[in-house]
Amino acid sequence: MILNENNYIETINGFSKVDWKPLLDLILEIEKTNNFGEMKGGEKNEEGIIIMPYWVESTIVSRFHQIVYDLPIVISFDWGSWNEGRKIVNDKNFNFDSIDIPTKCKIITAIVRNDRFCDGALVSAFESGLILKILKSIENQL
Fold first, then answer.
1. Fewest C-beta in 10 Å: which of 8, 46, 54, 119?
2. 1 in a domain, yes or no?
3. Count of the separate structural domains present in the chain
């Protein structure tokens, strides 16, 4: 399910701690995970056709992806034009506690939706620690 841009703030702010539990329960597992995905393909198959490289997500990344849609915290908005979000994720020292939970959900949305166009973007967000920072910040604010 995808939230409507007109009422996502009310919906997200209406979630209880119990609603957030499936997502926040991933924090410990993410902290213990060393490999969030791997690149496959890039070689010729038996017919001589080159298989384009693609990412295979680890189980935790796939579960995260499913949970953000099931909760739901994915928002329908023009994430590609959202310059504020781009500045936030490119600032390695950004304090996620300085923004509200709905804005964090917009960042998660942008990452998840971008992964459809840029294969491996979600895996990269896990590897860089960005997803973990966002989840810990949501947990702190709850």
1. 46
2. no
3. 1
Residue 140 predicted with pLDDT over 90: yes
Instruction: Find the domain containing 109 and state its range.
Output: 8-141
Half-sphere exposure of 105 (CA within 13 A, CB side): 28
Burial of 3 (0-12, 13-18, 19+ CB in 10 A): buried
Cβ burial, residue 126 (10 Å; 0-12/13-18/19+) = buried
For the record, the structure tokens of 104 come out as 């964090």
| The residue to which tokens 């995970």 are assigned | 33
Cα gap 27→22, rounded to integer Å: 10
Residue with tokens 């459809």: 116
pLDDT digits (tens, 9 = 90+) for 48-104: 898 889 999 999 999 999 999 999 999 999 999 999 999 999 999 999 999 999 999
Task: Judge whether 3 lies within some domain.
Answer: no
